[in-house]
């Protein structure tokens, strides 16, 4: 018996097509396709601040013993010299990704002396804004470009916000699996190229993610409080706990609220088009080429030194803060948007996960299993296009859950109608159940269903959520945000230092660090041309008129 063909998506209304998800699962559950479900890829990028033993931001340079932040594939920095970024390779098994992340932490702890890794998304006690060190990548043209970009971020958003950290989850389905799904589409859809079909389905995933990602904020948000110094004396609506902690009583993720990665006035009107790849690329290409008067007033140089790449709405496409991004591995020297435009979407990057302060590596295996199920549902389910109203509605729901997701009786908007958050969440869990069961049937275990069942308990008992537990710990122990997270980071550091890497693996990582330093030195030694000429060529990016 052949698998049922998919219903043609209705892109003019938000009417649900409950059969599409079931049809997709039935197709992938066929014996010939089952193994493809285990061949998707996972990768993790985790940011974490280095701090001193007393919990202050580390003002030391990125340790040379970790290698070059410019050329090391697995260990680099994000905004600040103190903001480490751990980058795993890609693995078909999520647990292997976590094992690699654990290994990277163990190596880092062997090289940072008495410093600690801050295991929280909201920053430690920060120095004066001017004293936060911006990441430095050496004297090569590409290294200087990365530094100037960060100088621009400091001007546009302030250094404090750039010290917020998170976990980015990279995810893809096997490309042969996409081919099987395409073959089951109605006849008229088969004329779409495989590259375009795969990109279209990833954008369908992204639209559903935009609709439903408030659920991830409720379940995994872990930043309901912050150090009082973070607000730098600005007006706010947070409540005080003692003299040094601010919080919101029902918040799940202040990091993802308007206190964290909020849109500035330059980005407020930037609404990327998620209808399809061409529309998305065009909307962001315009943003990286459209001047913004307040940035023009600042200019690109001060006293002869570059302070931002350009004066456009976005310096580069990655400046756009988004909870999820379509991605394609770029070639050397290739812009991210150009890679997407030429070769289509390869994977998605989920960017809204807080660091889990109770997990030594910042994310639990059960979280990975749940996100696998969630993203599979988003990928297979019907996904009408997002109107401007639908985009605003999804953004409002996401922000509301970030700031007050645990408020009893919280109501969201679904297609213009009010719905209790808890009721909508149960509907989504019901839709995910079949996906979890299929993943487990292919594996021969119950890890996805167990993760789903454990997370569902949080819907009826908000005290189980990481955000509730984080606040309860502060109140029960009567300690500040900084005190609690310093103690937690110290305990985690002791655990890593008690598990040094085997000598052979330690030597491998030390060799990788040396090789990365040699690559940076070669770049600096062999480069041709001055930085101004290099930057002028970089600024000339137009995607052959796609963004014009």
TrEMBL record:
All copies of domain Glutamate--cysteine ligase, residue ranges: 26-401
Entries under Pfam families matching the protein: Glu_cys_ligase
Alphabetical keyword list: ATP-binding, Glutathione biosynthesis, Ligase, Nucleotide-binding
Entry GO CC: cytosol
Enzyme Commission number(s) from the entry: 6.3.2.2
Cross-referenced InterPro entries: Gln_synth/guanido_kin_cat_dom (IPR014746), Glu_cys_ligase (IPR007370), Glut_cys_ligase (IPR006334)
Annotated metabolic or biological route of this protein: Sulfur metabolism; glutathione biosynthesis; glutathione from L-cysteine and L-glutamate: step 1/2
Superkingdom, taxonomy of origin: Bacteria
GO MF term set: ATP binding; glutamate-cysteine ligase activity; metal ion binding
Enzyme category, top tier: ligase
Gene Ontology biological-process entries: glutathione biosynthetic process
UniProt catalytic activity: L-cysteine + L-glutamate + ATP = gamma-L-glutamyl-L-cysteine + ADP + phosphate + H(+)
PANTHER family linked: GLUTAMATE--CYSTEINE LIGASE (PTHR38761:SF1)
Family stated for the protein in its record: Belongs to the glutamate--cysteine ligase type 1 family. Type 1 subfamily.
NCBIfam families according to UniProt: glu_cys_ligase
Protein name per UniProt: Glutamate--cysteine ligase
Species: Pararobbsia silviterrae
Gene: gshA
